[in-house]
């Protein structure tokens, strides 16, 4: 993808030029314009790649459909036309969801202020607020920079509302209140993805207890529990490349220590024993909260390990669930005492089974190898259990199945190294399985596997060719 960008107007003019001067059909004109700009290194991800409607009879240029909808929505908001707004908000939301380019064009044309005003209309009933929140959510998807202090306060206010504070009438029902909470949670998640400033702003404003509180208040709603857990997880991300140091670790500690987040999440899981989607989301969030040794032990003590093992045993046919459960086991295995509990719970066999049944899934192979790697680390007694249970063979099969996936190759190499570093007697069985050639291939194909592959070969007792690196100071260092 290119790094240069152009205005929508520039692209539209190029398309019209292809039609008028080169007599191209509309679809061909758009396709040619796309090829032309991409060849110049232009990023077109924010460009609507369609023919703009022709000029009207008076020569006035027409707008793209989403901007026409936005104009109508803006007028309805300004006039507080509560009769027209529902349909306009619904149309605008649908168009924003079609593709990023549509909502990007709308955002550049002032859509955020219009939609936020729709959320704040005096006298508007909750159904209209729900629709406006849906529009805001669609607009914020991939555009978290749009959110301002007024938008932040709106979302916080929606999450603060309590059932006992509201008058239940025909217009204001418990179901609508739940949906408003759900809409606010979705908006918050989009606003915090890849935006450290928004995360810190929400955390300072007290959003974390509101998120755990939403799970406690609406514990019977699968959608709310899933969205609130996802929002908590996003608060622990460190994905904003514009910020050198984020507060991901601090937010995770606040969720656990100040808001009893581990207990809230694990207790919530008990209400959804047959809902893999909710359970996998809870597992994913628990893995993000396993940032301290004691937190890993707390998860086990509260029943979190039982949840993960049950998920693996009963949801093996759901790849997303398996991946999240493996990731959670990998995370809590950072605690050496927890490693023992995981092996004692029979998770090793389930991890190997997951690898075998989902051998074609690179993400599951990566997480499965990583989980076994953690269980073997500093635990030589676990290494024999893993090898005898087929873990080493499954890892090597994963390497064969995904030769181009560097993450899979790296985790498998690390697992093999951990298995033999303190149990050299296991080297020969692994060599007989073909470990040396697979590791050598990974080392040659993936630069980021060089260190772990070399260490695995060395601990297997294989000859390792040393490389010489120029230091810039006239000396060569053997690696």
UniProtKB/TrEMBL annotation:
PANTHER family: ARMADILLO REPEAT-CONTAINING PROTEIN 6 (PTHR22895:SF0). The keyword Repeat applies. This is ARMC6 protein. InterPro entries: ARM-like, ARM-type_fold, Armadillo. Transmembrane segments: none annotated. Keywords: Repeat. One of its GO terms (biological process) is hematopoietic progenitor cell differentiation. SMART domains: ARM. The keyword Hydrolase does not apply. ARM repeats lie at residues 303-347.
